[in-house]
Amino acid sequence: MGHRLADASAPARLAAPEEGIGRDELALATRNHGLPLEALRYDLTPPGLHYVLTHYDIPYVPDDTPWHLAIGGRVGRPLRLDLADLRAFPQVTTRVTLECAGNGRALLTPRPVSQPWLVEAVGTAEWTGVPLRLLLAQAGVEPEAVEVVFTGADHGVERGVEQDYRRALPLNVATAGDPEVLVAYAMNGAPLPPQHGRPLRLVVPGWYGMAHVKWLREVEVTDVPFAGFQQAVAYRLRRHREEEGEPVTRIAPRALLVPPGFPDFMSRARVVRPGRVALEGRAWSGRAPVTCVEVSSDAGRTWRKAELEPDTGHRWAWRRWRYDWTATPGDHVLSARATDAEGHGQPLEQLWNRGGFANNVVQRVPVLCVDEG
Ligand SMILES: Nc1nc2c(c(=O)[nH]1)N[C@H]1C(S)=C(S)[C@@H](COP(=O)(O)O)O[C@H]1N2
Ligand SMILES: [Mo]
């Protein structure tokens, strides 16, 4: 009898109480790796340590592959640009902290079954490319335009829906001058690695990862809001299945610690010795600049201000923070929390939604301070 796509593509579901991480989630986790948290020390994440998230397959794009970016829809002059054409436009480099909207998902109860991130789906890179607004100006956006839809070269099926990876931005975001959305062809000064979108990707400073379409091949200006899967079905904040839900957009504030001391291989539990322990970490927000980071060494009961590094001028990148902690023998839970200039902060209790998006609950790092040794 019938062989249907849906047979290969299950609906979204929540894990049952006590249900452990499944083989399907493990398979996703081995493909889509996180930032090893000790790499929070680098201002710019070395490629290879930057987190990766790919819904389908990484397209095979060897160096000599011809690539064209089509710009069309509600424009006066549709464009078809190759990489040399793109390089002839003014070039901009922006330092951007990218975070997956699903970061924190696997900490949720109940757990949405999907890519099981703890807190490590983040990285910072310098992206170089052409401001999208210049390309759209060249193409001549028509007055009826409301959105811009971006299509990647990757193809798959998700919850029964076969699709190319596709996401849209409101026209005002796509054409903004500050920050500029980039059509990027380089990461940290080198051509994009395959897993980060070779040869072209979108970079939308301040927005969660899903907006930064990789392997970009088409830009379409539309006069109706985009209702594709990754816009209207996925990436919405819903507590109940039948809700329409708010769209996921900008990155909520988060602070993370560089894991202190040394780890146990299996549990990754941290071990320190008594005395002064220099804690450090990073904090970011896609909504407004981070203005305050606080640290707790008693599981969030009391908080002290950390020292924030002076403003480096990289508005869309994480900021470093430091705090001197005096460790005493025993068990401790370390936490850090960020607040931004608009007063957005981080909750101590999970912000639950069915997709497991934007869970910026305060990180908890159990540390054992040993007195022998
Ligand atoms: N074409 C395409 N673009 C994509 C994706 C994808 O699966 N296909 N994943 C998105 C998601 S969910 C995230 S979090 C970021 C991850 O970017 P990175 O792998 O470069 O860190 O890419 C986004 N762009
Ligand atoms: Mo993501």
Please report the distance between the alpha carbons of the first and last residues: 68 Å
CATH class of the largest domain: Alpha Beta
Instruction: Please name the CATH topology of the largest domain.
Output: Sulfite Oxidase, Chain A, domain 2
Q: Radius of gyration over alpha carbons?
A: 22 Å
Q: Return the CATH architecture of the largest domain.
A: Alpha-Beta Complex
Count of folded domains: 2
Main sheet attributes: strand count, strand direction, barrel closure: 6 strands, mixed
Quick one: CATH superfamily of the largest domain?
Oxidoreductase, molybdopterin-binding domain
Please write the string of helix (H) and strand (E) elements: HEEHEEHEEHEEEEHEEEEEEEEEEEE
Number of strands: 22
Shape: globular
**Strand order within the widest sheet?**
14-15-22-21-17-18
- Mean pLDDT across the residues is 97
Low-confidence sequence ranges: none
Structural class: mainly beta
- Please estimate the helix content: under 10%
Pfam families: Mo-co_dimer, Oxidored_molyb
Domain Oxidoreductase molybdopterin-binding: 57-229
InterPro entries: Ig_E-set (IPR014756), MoCF_OxRdtse_dimer (IPR005066), Mopterin_OxRdtase_euk (IPR008335), OxRdtase_Mopterin-bd_dom (IPR000572), OxRdtase_Mopterin-bd_sf (IPR036374)
Domain Moybdenum cofactor oxidoreductase dimerisation: 275-367
